[in-house]
Fold these 3 entries.
Entry 1:
Amino acid sequence: MSSDSQKPSTGRGPRAARRADTRPLIQFEQISKRFGDVLAVDRLSLEIHEGEFFALLGPSGCGKTTLLRMLAGFESPSEGRLVLDGKDISAVPPHRRPVNMMFQSYALFPHLTVAGNIGFGLRQEGLGRDEIAARVADILALVRLTGFGARKPEQLSGGQRQRVALARALVKRPRVLLLDEPMAALDKKLREETQFELMELQRRLGTTFVIVTHDQDEAMVVADRIGVMNEGRLAQVATPAEIYERPNSRWVADFIGDVNLLEARLVGFEAGGALIDCMRSRLRVAHAPDAKPGDTVWVALRPEKVALARSTPEGADNVMSGTIFDIGFLGDMSIYKIGLDDGTIMKAAAANIARRVEQPFAIDEKVWLSWTADCAVVLTA
Amino acid sequence: MSTMPIIRALSARLIMLVPYAWLLVFFLVPFIIVLKISLSQTALAQPPYTPVLDVAAGWAGVGTFLAGLSLDAYALLWSDWLYLLSYLKSLEIAAVSTALLLLFGFPIAYGIARAPRRWQGILALLVILPFWTSFLIRIYAWINILQHDGLLNQLLLALGFVRTPVTWLSTDTAIYIGIVYSYLPFMVLPVYATLEKMDESLLEAAADLGCPRWKAFWLVTLPLALPGVIAGSLLCFIPIVGEFVIPDLLGGSESLMIGQTLWTEFFGNKDWPVASAIAVVLLCVLVAPMVFYEHMQKRELEAH
């Protein structure tokens, strides 16, 4: 299942408009973090806006968790400024920050009941017993755990524990909710349900959510914007659709979803696009890359944008031919691996829109691949 | 073919029996013998008490034996303040020592649990390292340290803390020093075991929820370490009540712990029945905390 096939239409309106009229709630300004000789975060700048659901996505060790822990106050930046709500919070200890975190391990206190866990933060604020009880009851209802207040964490299922952890972090009404791989411990089905619940919750509360995840599907589903991280830097910050359809580098294109990456040479520009030489073929793309004719560029083409045919397609912008050597049946779609005539391997994905057991194409079959000019992205980095 | 499962089931049962057999042979049988002796009277004979069960005389012998049993030894324990004071002294020393052990042991255990993981094993080993030397030799060494012109007084005089040597030896202070020194690993290791299991992120969660570090210690660390604290306290308290060697070598003679009283009755007065009665009562006194410990362990097991 490719990431964009399950992306919901959230109807949250264009983010760009909202971004323009709100000042950034969180500002990372040239932040670096060193652990001994290791540079975990490298001169990183990032702005996150009020009410945004922002995802930090990247492979393990890319520095995304360090960034989140800096926001929570568990790590302090080696260099740079961390600003929350216009104030530098780099030196503010975690217990004085108006942010709350949901831990990957949930970190529920095993000696306290569910209500005790959720009320823990409110007691630190010195609230009265009645108010604490009322707010705990409200938040329990919000996460659909009414009646579970007297249970101990060990008496709950994984999904229930996850909701207690969420309630405990939300009950303090933080300016920012930090979520560290919040669904890593859930099974696939529960994870998908929870993702939608989380989005629903964020929309209702309007709280700024910052989630750290290595699961790109999760980031794509829940987030308004994604910061893709690699080796301590932000590779790209954009909406899920932009990141998927307009990656700014080979690394991002390859990290997010499945992609065919073809090395090519820029030949020249034409009206509204460019011509590219790639594997003895002349390709057309519908945008002008930031490069000079003669430069080496890379063509990134998502498998689902490649159409397969048994005969030469009429009027297609780009055509190549090859032989199918492998077919992966995924249920909703099939992935075809095609060896081009020059030996390059291309992947094409076709949705199985008709209900039939026989595949439309067979292994060793000679096929034509085609795609329109606006389907491929030309990358220069 | 069908005999295999039976043999396997039987051997499983047999393995289950081993601890019970052990307790039967090395605890219950000796205890019944002690109980029997405690119900006898002292006598100038071999063995030094009557009645003696004469199995050769058959049922008549058993009858004579049962008729000869009495509670005289227990009555003596009750009538003489010496014994009651001994028990109280032992409980006092054990209670104060356990509190001191907690005071010293908890920070040590906490320090080890918070040390880098590769150091933890070595630090825990250092705690039990003194055990590699004979217990008696270590207590004798303390006599040297604590005596009038011993190391401790020399040090205090040299540093100018005191002008004349302090009397350490033959005081309760010396007993406490000896006990805390000897029992420290029994406190440190169980507490360390619970602290080491504790998820570091719980403290981060506490901080995240607005709880400063010092407060998180009381609200999170200590409650979670409680099973270890209880286990360590009982592991120390119970044997300290019956401690004999340390008070005998380091303590004074003005008030005796129950172990010393028992030793005197047995070896000094050759009064086996009273010595046995002391042991039986001591056991009854100690059953209470042991039952409590058992209860706690059961709760712990059910919790997981």
Entry 2:
Amino acid sequence: MTKNKTISQITTELACKKYSVTELIKEYLDRIKSENPKLNAFITITEKEALQEAQEADKTLSQNPNIFLEKPLLGVPLAHKDLFLTKNIKTTAGSRLLENYLPQYSATVVKKLSKAGAISLGKLNCDAWAHGASGENSDFGPTINPADPTRVSGGSSSGSAAAVAADLVTFATGTDTGGSTRQPACFCGVIGLKPTYGRVSRSGIVAMASSLDSIGHLTQNVYDSALVLETTAGPDPYDATSSNLKVEEYTKLLKKPVEKLKIGIIKEYQDGLTDHDVAGSFALAKSTLEKMNCQIKEISLPHTKYSVATYYIIMPAEVSSNLARYDGLRYGHTRDLFGDEAKRRIMIGTYTLSSGYYDAYYLRAMKVRQLIKADFSQAFADVDIILSPVAPTPAFKLGEKTNDPLSMYLSDIYTVTANLAGIPGIAIPTGKNSSNLPLGVQFLANHFQEAKLFNLAYQFEQHLHA
Amino acid sequence: MPETTPIIGLEVHVELTTDSKMFCACSADHFGKEPNSQTCPVCLGLPGALPVPNQKAIEATLKLGLALNCCVNLQSHFDRKQYFYPDLPKGYQISQYQHPFCSEGQIILDSGKIIRVERVHLEEDTGKLQHTVESGKKISLIDFNRSGVPLVEIVSYPDIESAAEAKEYLKKIHQIIRAVGVSTADMEKGQMRLEPTVNVQINDETGSHFTPLVEIKNINSFNFAATAIDYEISRQVEQFSKDKKEKTASNKQTRGFDNNRKTTFVQRQKEEAKDYRYFPEPDIPPFVFEVSLIASIKACLPELPENKIQSLVSLGVESKYAKILYTDKSVTDILYHFAKNMPDVNIGKLASFIANKKIRVEGDVYIQYQALTRQRINDQSELEKFIDTVISDNHRAVTDYQNGKTNALGFLIGQVIKVSQCQADPQTVSRLLLEKLGLGQ
């Protein structure tokens, strides 16, 4: 009845009483029960709460058929990455250290989505503390790629990507510190949004690296992505880094003509496109854009080659600090429950912030970060949108990189730059390779240019499916 | 005898008297409140909670900095100071390191000596540990009511050379804090905490030597600070005469103060400079202050103690009285009023009468002043005329007195003084009146 429905399909059909919210939610819960054991996308399933909310939503809907104007996501099933605090519902951050943690409050985004009527079906698996690019760092087991049970779903928003791809939820929240929504979205074949830093409140979301964390979501299509951001974006009195800039009506701007848009492709990335599938996907995207009469222009980001090095100094420094609060006195567990990856990052971060090393590492990395930002502002003086690959390869095999952290880190090569610069990006599927693995590209825009980003991504999506 | 010069620097922590805490909306008024009754995710350091800076606290810090003659740094930011302690729920304290809000100020002692202020920065207070015994078991409890209360740190350069100078510097800082109104700075409530750092330069025949640095923690009275400093100076000189140990980069010691024994004791030997791994707080955007904002804060600063005293002195008040009287607004109002409107009043004299409690400012100050300064009438025949008038006009009081109501005498004395237009000497009047009434019987 409801397989692979988008948000707008669901709300339309709920409005014309094709099915009730309860029927809808039950069907999703049934699908979770049958599919999740294979995928391990959920850490916690909140069936009771979801059904109760569904009943309430049905009641609201029967009383007020125009409720969708007020609650644009009424009845829509979603789930939250387990980094998002949910009041009185277990929130683990993918780590055993928080395996029994019941938050006293909910994240701003959780509250906003709930107020908009969306119904949470549970908490989604992720790499512990969002550290990872494969989902394999979760203390609750890896998430399996719905397209291929031998492959990873990407990370760290592993459960979010797999759940949306397998239609266990209509959309899911995610966080993106170095690519953690875009890369798993690409690996699983769904839309992954990383908004501008500060566009969406970080309050109530377990912090990974505070200056890089961007709060995004994964959806079935671009329209839904724009619709969800209309709800989640905006200033928050509980987050001093949230922006006061007006939130645009992204969904109303999707059909603006894009013919004259200038699309940049990054000179420095061209040599690295060694993977046949990734190169093919990139070429397809480029030719599609040309067919859309966009103007393709080569640009240079001279400092982009330092991105991964810069990221892997700034990020662990902030991680080491943000994980200090799990000090062994609180939360019921001691620090030896941190996994290898968290320990690795705590040690690297502690080292680079130590006196005598700070100038050589952290301070220098912050300077390079400024140069990378400057590269982008220069580029965006020339072009409207940048087209880039998302990851160097399609979804890799489970276990393939677990013993080689460095090669795992390098899978972030195309994504971390957007986090360093604080700009928005959206990963969008382009099709599948010969082994049926999803492929995709990403678009990047200048700060707070989400409207432009959605506008192009939406029409790109239409052209691909035409 | 070697020549010794103490080298003393002072760190002063002041809790700002703001309504809410530094980074959340919890009440900052924590004294005597039920433990953990004023907390929220932010000041408990719960996962996902983010600090949002309190604008009022920042303005208060700028005010205080300006009152201490500091420069406001146009660009500054918060840093994370990282260390583990159970009363620090985030594992770091939000403080300021390289870019404090204010720096390079000064306090001038009465001797004219300048004590330079290195910096005035803003940070958050920690929770409070309570060590207690529960069911026969020693336990430690944490109260987070104080966690996140705005705390200003005022750091001096080591320009102070004696306990007396330290005390004077602290008193002046205390007066300024209260004058600016940013904190009640109640020492007994721990709203102002003092940390002297002390060592001694010893010059002997072999040259110049510096004893190892000692930081004395958490003192809550000016007298204790002075006692601790004096003790520390003599202890260090004596210690040096025994072991000749000099200051190194790694032998700084932290000591506590025992008020009962009037001594200091070792708390921690710093093996090496403590590494707090400071880095800019990413959760709070950096601050850029407009010059106009600083100018307007400066323009709105209340008159500072030093200036108040100076302007009293310029009216003719002796400086020793000016220092006593400047805090009482009703007194200074009177002094200014008389200086402006009563050219026949000597302001220096008036101030000394008030300071010596010869004039009660609640009453008619002018009459009291005149009474104290006018030439007294002691001429007996003239006084007797006044007394006779009063006796004949106040039969009832006279009868009362003669019937044993002794307090009627006071009334009659007052009447005589009144009739004399305050020129009669009360003692002489009393004697003459008694003679008349007594002899009359």
Entry 3:
Amino acid sequence: MFRPSHFTAVLLFALFASTVFGITMRETPKRMFKYGAYCFALFVGAAIVLSWVMYLIAR
Amino acid sequence: MATAANKTSAGKQEQQGFVYLPLIAGWLVPGAGHFLLGKWIRGTLLAASIILMFALGLAMHGKLYTGGPEILDLLGFIGDLGNGAMYFVAHLLGLGAEPVMVTTADYGSKFIVVAGLLNVIAAVDAHNLRTGRKEA
């Protein structure tokens, strides 16, 4: 059984989803890459920010 | 002039045929719609992303939804169906049938559903390339 940590699962999820978003939402390879990287950063950044928010709320 | 007209006519004929083939192929096998259109790199990246996501979901002991009276089960089933042939093969092999007991398995279930939704996006992209709605 594959048992990744929560953060590893976030990274994998963000990588796969960003790859598909980049390829399907833009038309040239350069723009695909930039949009994919942007989505990846947003996915991971949002997960980190929300994690801190939940941590602070729970205190 | 006549030659140019003939070329245009030949081009249109090439564009004819079954317009929905890349859409259906892309749904059944991730990336196949792009392969049919000669987009090898895009197809490979899409296939790798979607197949890996589905396989990792199963490796995490994620659940394959089979429908049911609960709305979340039904929505999960619709998402899972987006995986096309992979869903049916995994279902026939009895994978993803165990109940979700650990957190990782819950992540796995979400990976499988999202892989299906991403596959639908990829198949629609192949259709848009085929119809010319999106520039190649």
